[in-house]
């Protein structure tokens, strides 16, 4: 039975730091096998993490629905606030920019109400840490696939990305019917269409990931640990080497739950992502055509896409005829594997 990797990344900054190579080997092994690795992080500081989950998120989700909807949802990939079953979620674009956090707080608490400085400080601290973990994991994976250093740092998720934060709330499922022993899901199994998503749980269980051997593995909500999962764009960019991670949410205790996540998306909405040229060769035929990620997100959530369930990526940009797919299929892919589509 192959376990999910659990790797301590505390204090690790750059290639060359002590412990880099061992950590890289463990991170890459787990990401290449499962599209997921658990990383011990240790920051943000416990008091900010407690403030985030104990005050900031409860204060946000207790707001009236019409106020939360000021974070207006647009067509995918521009989802703002949404509510589906027991889950509700608010999305902040470019959450690595203090102005974006401030603008989001001003939108929801236009007058003096709400502790906006605490909101901004706690979300910024969580975002910084999740961004650090995302960067380390992508870097370790690309290094382990043999990409030269200059290409690693120029790769889209590291160089130029929209780092979104999504803050989520799952309502309690009261009573003994909270779980029927297996089936009740708070969020159905899905792939994220991001490059990477980092998930920060807190105290209440819920996240489950599908391991390579087909078992659902519950990721315990440890305060110093985040789960880092591969989204579909990382699968495309690595030409299938890193499988996207199928994941779902199940909370047998039925308790109310909060979650913070950070996802890396391409920086613009007219961006095409294709396999990195170095990862396409005779032994590794091209598996994906370059994909306009916004068009893909719209397809994924369209009626046709929903009918396909979790097979949308293959349907949208998978190379069907694997024979003779060893070259670039006549498609010019820019060196970084990402080009502005105009
Ligand atoms: O709540 C979780 O643990 C996972 C949430 C998730 O996968 C998502 O919002 O895309
Ligand atoms: Fe997800």
Task: Tell me how many strands there are.
Answer: 15
Largest beta-sheet details: 8 strands, mixed
> Could you report the average pLDDT, rounded to the nearest whole number?
89
CATH architecture annotation = Sandwich
The DSSP helix count reads 11
| Ligand inventory | 2-oxoglutaric acid, fe (ii) ion
Which percent bin holds the helix content?
A: 25-40%
- Tell me the name of the CATH homologous superfamily: B-lactam Antibiotic, Isopenicillin N Synthase, Chain
Strand order of the largest sheet: 1-2-10-7-12-5-4-3
Order of helices and strands: EHEHHEEHHHHEEEEEEHEEEEHHHE
Structural class: alpha+beta
Note the overall shape: globular
Q: What is the CA-CA span between the terminal residues? A: 47 Å
Q: Outline the low-pLDDT stretches.
A: 324-342
Work out the count of structural domains: 1
Strand content: 15-25%
Named CATH topology: Jelly Rolls
CATH class placement: Mainly Beta
Can you walk through the features of this model?
The chain has 342 residues and is α+β, with helices and mostly antiparallel strands. It has a single domain, classed as Jelly Rolls (Sandwich). Helices cover 32% and strands 21% of the residues. It has helices spanning 20-34, 46-61, 65-68, 98-108, 116-144, 149-154, 156-159, 232-237, 293-300, 303-308, 312-317; strands at residues 5-8, 36-40, 82-84, 87-92, 161-170, 187-190, 196-200, 207-210, 216-218, 225-230, 247-249, 257-266, 271-273, 291-292, 338-340. The strands form 3 sheets. Strands 1-2-10-7-12-5-4-3 form an 8-stranded mixed beta sheet. A 4-stranded antiparallel beta sheet has the order 6-11-8-9, with no helix packed on it. Helix 1 links the parallel strand 1 and strand 2. The longest helix is centred in the middle third of the chain and has 29 residues, at 116-144. It is globular. It binds 2-oxoglutaric acid and fe (ii) ion. Fe (ii) ion (FE2) is lined by residues 190, 192, 197, 247. This is Fe2OG dioxygenase domain-containing protein.
């Amino acid at each position: 039975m192959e376990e999910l990797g659990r790797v301590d990344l505390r204090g690790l900054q750059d290639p060359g730091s002590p412990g880099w190579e061992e950590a890289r080997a463990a991170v890459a092994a787990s990401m290449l096998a499962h599209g997921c690795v658990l990383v011990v992080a240790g920051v943000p500081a416990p008091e900010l993490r407690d403030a985030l989950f104990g005050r900031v998120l409860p204060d946000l989700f207790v707001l009236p629905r019409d106020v939360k909807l000021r974070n207006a949802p647009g067509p995918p990939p521009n989802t703002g606030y949404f509510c589906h079953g027991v889950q509700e979620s608010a999305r902040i674009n470019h959450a690595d920019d203090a102005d974006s956090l401030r603008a989001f707080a001003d939108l929801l608490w236009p007058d003096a109400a709400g502790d906006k400085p605490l909101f901004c400080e706690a979300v910024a601290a969580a975002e910084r840490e999740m961004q650090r973990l995302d960067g380390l994991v992508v870097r370790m994976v690309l290094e382990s696939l043999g990409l030269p250093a200059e290409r690693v740092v120029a790769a889209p998720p590291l160089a130029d990305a929209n780092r979104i934060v999504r803050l989520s709330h799952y309502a309690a499922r009261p009573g003994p019917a909270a779980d029927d022993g297996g089936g009740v899901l708070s969020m159905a199994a899905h792939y994220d269409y991001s490059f990477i998503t980092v998930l920060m749980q807190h105290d209440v269980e819920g996240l489950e990931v599908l391991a390579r051997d087909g078992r659902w593995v519950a990721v315990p909500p440890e305060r110093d640990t985040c789960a880092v999962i591969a989204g579909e764009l990382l699968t495309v960019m690595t030409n299938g080497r890193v499988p996207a991670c199928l994941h779902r949410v199940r909370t047998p205790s039925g308790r109310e739950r909060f979650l913070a996540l950070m996802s890396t998306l391409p920086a613009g909405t007219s961006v095409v992502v294709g396999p990195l040229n170095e990862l396409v060769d005779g032994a590794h035929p091209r598996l994906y055509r370059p994909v306009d990620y916004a068009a893909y997100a719209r397809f994924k959530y369209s009626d046709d896409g929903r009918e396909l369930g979790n097979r949308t990526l293959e349907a949208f940009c998978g190379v069907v005829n694997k024979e003779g797919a060893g070259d670039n299929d006549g498609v010019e892919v820019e060196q970084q594997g990402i080009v502005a589509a105009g």
